[in-house]
């Protein structure tokens, strides 16, 4: 793989990722890769208002970006909004700075009748690992 990621944005109107939350829109995510019900990659620009006092993207915004990939992927895998995240664990490996792009790929690892487990990796444009995460969603009974 080259030292710099270069991906073409996919047309979000041709992909069914469920209702788009306002937080996704405000983080300016762009869909880079999608395999229905299996994996989703979204790039998020690292903007000035995401930075902590040391000048790197705050961990909460990194987790929010990851959450903005887990949610649509969960919808893709279940075709329902009757799910909710019950836990998410994020580990931070290195900082990412303004002007870069946080590229998050989430993958469905297991999907049962009531629970879905996913993992994610977040990289910068130079393909350096920024963060990893895992989560569990549960199907709600209506």
For the structure shown, list the relevant keywords:
alpha+beta, Thiol Ester Dehydrase, Chain A, 6-stranded antiparallel beta sheet, disordered N terminus
What does this structure look like?
- By secondary structure, the chain is of the alpha+beta class.
- It has a single domain, classed as Hotdog Thioesterase (Thiol Ester Dehydrase, Chain A).
- Helix content is 18%, strand content 38%.
- It contains 2 helices and 6 strands.
- The termini are far apart.
Compact overview of the structure:
By secondary structure, the protein is an alpha+beta fold. Helix content is 18%, strand content 38%.
List the helices and strands and how they pair.
Blueprint: H1 22-26, E1 30-35, E2 39-45, H2 59-78, E3 83-92, E4 101-111, E5 115-123, E6 129-139
Antiparallel strand pairs: 1-2, 2-4, 3-6, 4-5, 5-6
**Backbone CA Rg:** 15 Å
Counted beta strands: 6
Mean pLDDT: 90
How is the main sheet built? Answer: 6 strands, antiparallel
CATH topology: Thiol Ester Dehydrase, Chain A
Beta fraction = 35-45%
- The total count of helices amounts to 2
- For this structure, the quaternary state is single chain
Q: What's the CATH architecture name?
A: Roll
Highest-level CATH class: Alpha Beta
Give the tally of structural domains. 1
Helix content: 10-25%
Please give the alpha-carbon distance between the first and last residues.
46 Å
Query: Which spans have pLDDT < 50 for at least 5 consecutive residues?
Result: 1-6
String of helices and strands: HEEHEEEE
CATH H level: which superfamily? Hotdog Thioesterase
Q: Which strand order spans the largest sheet, edge to edge or round the barrel? A: 1-2-4-5-6-3
Shape type: globular
> Strand pairing plus helix content: what structural class?
alpha+beta
């Amino acid at each position: 793989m080259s030292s710099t990621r270069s991906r073409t944005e996919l047309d979000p109107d041709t992909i069914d990722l469920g209702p788009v939350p306002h937080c996704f829109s405000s983080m300016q995510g762009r869909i880079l890769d999608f395999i229905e019900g299996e994996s989703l990659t979204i790039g998020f620009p690292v903007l000035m208002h995401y930075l902590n006092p040391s000048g790197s993207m705050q961990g909460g915004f990194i987790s929010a970006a990851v959450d903005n990939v887990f949610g649509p992927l969960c919808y893709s895998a279940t075709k329902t909004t009757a799910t909710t995240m019950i836990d998410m664990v994020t580990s931070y490996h290195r900082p990412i700075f303004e002007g870069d792009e946080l590229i998050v790929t989430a993958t469905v690892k297991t999907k049962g009748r009531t629970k879905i487990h996913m993992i994610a990796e977040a990289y910068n444009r130079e393909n350096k690992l920024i963060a990893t995460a895992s989560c569990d969603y549960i199907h709600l009974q209506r």
